[in-house]
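Posting for a labmate who doesn't have an account.
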Amino acid sequence: MTSFAAVYAGVEATIAEHAHAQDEGRVADMVALYWPDGVVEIPGMATLSGVEAIREAFSQAAWQPDPAHPRRHIVANTVVTEWTGHEAKATSDVVMLRFDGTAWAPAIVARYHDEFGESGGRWLLRRRSDEYVGYHP
């Protein structure tokens, strides 16, 4: 049986890999962290269903990094709320920082509500629902 520690470590690794890939504009690496029928829900956007829809959305220029104004997703306080050997749910707090050319400042304060499935020893996202607490474009 899979231990809670193993589930937590796998879930946390996927969340961190997602943040790094998104911040660096590595869309293919980010999409590889989803099940083929994965879903992403972001306030103000249509629900993205399936990896092709996720790939298309995150390939848009607005989502790509700007070297002059980099961003970093800082994810913390991850709590695995439900788990089995093959499925898990987790909630995490996230702050997206953006560099304006002079200083880093919070641009988004949010919470991720994630659902995962285990596949070949990796924990892949089945669903990510973002809940925005604050947004400062």
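Reply:
Got it, the structure tokens are right above this. The mean pLDDT is 94.
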